[in-house]
Design goal:
The protein has about 280 residues and is α/β, with parallel strands linked by helices. The chain has 4 helices and 12 strands, in the order αββββαβαβββαββββ. It is about 15% helix and about 20% strand.
Length: about 280
C-alpha cells in the first residue's frame, strides 16, 4: 500500500515538471518588446543619399553652347522679333537679356531698332516693346531661317519684299498674341508679348514649317573658346548717326558683352538688367 502511494506521488511529480517545462514564461514588464533597437543606437546601414538630378542640355545652334534645356526646342526654327530701341523706350525694354542674338541697325531719322532672336522663346515672360518691321530685319530673319514677328509694316515696299522672301511671319497686335501695358510712354511704346503667346501663334499656324534649324555660324565642336589677341576689345563704341551711338562694355567676370543702353531698363521678369547674348 505504501509502495503504491509512493509510485503515485513520483508519477504526479514527473507530470507537474513536464507541464512547467512546456509552458511559456511570463513577459518581463520592465522590457519594451516593441523596440528592437535601444534608443540612441545608430544603424550600421544608413539610407543611401539621393543623387542630385542632372538636367540634360542640348546644343543651341545660335550660340554653339549647350544651353537648351527643352528637348522640344531641338531642331526647331528660331524666333525673331523686332524690338523698339528709341531712347525714351529703352528703359521699358524687356526680355532682351534672354535673347541668344540681338541685331541693332539704323532705321530712319538716326534712330536704331533691334531684332532679337531666340532658339527657345517659350520661357520669356515679357518681351518688348514690339515695333514695326524693316527690310533689313526681314533679310536677317530669312538668313537665319527664323519665324518672324513684328507690329506694323510698310505696305508699299517692305510688305512685298517680305512676301518675296517666302519666310513664315506674323504681325502681332491682337489680344491673342500680345498685350499693351501702361509704362508712362505713348501708346506706340506699350506693346508687349510673351513666349507663351508666341508659342500659341506658332501652334495655330498649320501651314508654317517649324522644323529645320540652320546653324548660322561654324562653332567649335568642343565649344572651346578662341584664344584672345593681345589687344582686348573691352569697350566698343558704334556711332550709328549723329544722335545715336551704342557702346558695348565687356564684363570679364561674367564673360558677356553688355550694351550700356540696356542699363536703363526697368526690372521686368528678366535675369539681369544690361545683359544680352551675341550682339551684331
Amino acid at each position: 500500500m505504501r509502495l503504491k502511494s509512493l509510485v503515485s506521488l513520483l508519477l504526479a511529480a514527473v507530470l507537474l515538471f513536464s507541464f512547467s517545462a512546456c509552458s511559456k514564461a511570463p513577459a518581463d514588464p520592465t522590457i519594451d518588446s516593441s523596440s528592437s533597437i535601444p534608443s540612441g543606437t545608430i544603424s550600421s546601414n544608413p539610407a543611401p543619399e539621393e543623387e542630385e538630378e542632372v538636367i540634360p542640355t542640348y546644343l543651341n545652334p545660335l550660340t554653339g553652347e549647350m544651353t537648351l534645356t527643352d528637348p522640344e526646342a531641338v531642331g526647331k526654327k528660331p524666333v525673331a522679333i523686332t524690338i523698339n530701341n528709341i531712347y525714351v523706350a529703352q528703359k521699358v525694354q524687356c526680355g532682351l537679356d534672354q535673347a541668344d542674338v540681338v541685331f541693332e541697325t539704323e532705321v530712319e531719322g538716326g534712330i536704331t531698332r533691334l531684332l532679337a532672336v531666340f532658339a527657345d522663346v517659350s520661357k520669356v515672360q515679357k518681351l518688348g516693346t514690339v515695333r514695326s518691321l524693316r527690310v533689313v530685319f526681314a533679310d536677317i530673319a530669312a538668313g537665319m531661317n527664323a519665324l518672324l514677328f513684328y507690329h506694323g509694316i510698310d505696305e508699299d515696299y517692305c510688305s512685298p519684299h517680305l512676301k518675296s522672301l517666302g519666310i513664315n511671319s506674323h504681325q502681332i497686335g491682337a489680344k491673342s498674341d500680345s498685350f499693351r501695358e501702361k509704362n508712362g510712354l505713348a501708346y506706340e511704346h506699350r506693346l508687349y508679348t510673351s513666349g507663351e503667346l508666341l508659342d500659341g501663334v506658332i501652334e495655330g499656324k498649320k501651314k508654317w514649317t517649324t522644323e529645320g534649324t540652320t546653324q548660322w555660324l561654324n562653332f567649335s565642336e568642343d565649344a572651346t573658346k578662341a584664344a584672345p589677341s593681345e589687344t582686348k576689345a573691352v569697350n566698343i563704341k558704334v556711332p550709328f548717326s549723329g544722335t545715336s551711338t551704342t557702346q558695348f562694355i565687356y564684363d570679364e567676370a561674367e564673360q558677356k558683352g553688355m550694351n550700356i543702353h540696356k542699363f536703363l531698363r526697368e526690372k521686368c521678369e528678366s535675369k539681369k538688367p544690361g545683359e544680352s547674348g551675341l550682339v551684331a
